[in-house]
Amino acid sequence: MPPPAIPVPANATTVEVAVRWSDMDAYGHVNNVQYLRYLEEARVYAFHEWFGQERSLLEDGVLVARSEIDYLAPMTFSYEPALVTLWCSAISGASFDISYVVGQRGSDLTFAKAESTLVTYDLTAQRPRRIAEHERAAMESVAGEPLLLRSHKDRRAH
């Protein structure tokens, strides 16, 4: 689980993601683009858990509309996996947000926190589609408060 400094809902899912030597940049830190890959991999495994083994939201169509990451500390290579903890932090008619906290087994540091907005998508019609009730129910079962990212200054004022 991520360090207690960042509140994480009890129903959040934590996925282990391998940190590869090739993920490092010239400074010996995990490259910023690799974090997006860590989030993606965690999402794939979490969706499989959240939406069941019969069908996944990924098979029905979902697109990433936005991703935002606050980098908090540099992650260096380790044989220990990154731990990506994620939950659904907002649900609307055809989109939803996922919040993430990135840590690492054996470390008390939080390396990043992030949020992605995803849109449910009809692959045949090539347009957004409404979130189905069974999908909404699955997302509500892993729902929690959104993270406050640096760009959310207006949210802090309320």
UniProtKB/TrEMBL annotation:
InterPro entries, A to Z: 4-hydroxybenzoyl-CoA_TE (IPR050563), HotDog_dom_sf (IPR029069)
Cited SUPFAM superfamilies: Thioesterase/thiol ester dehydrase-isomerase
Highest taxon of source: Bacteria
Xref: Pfam families: 4HBT_2
CDD domains attached to this UniProt entry: 4HBT
Protein name (record): Acyl-CoA thioesterase
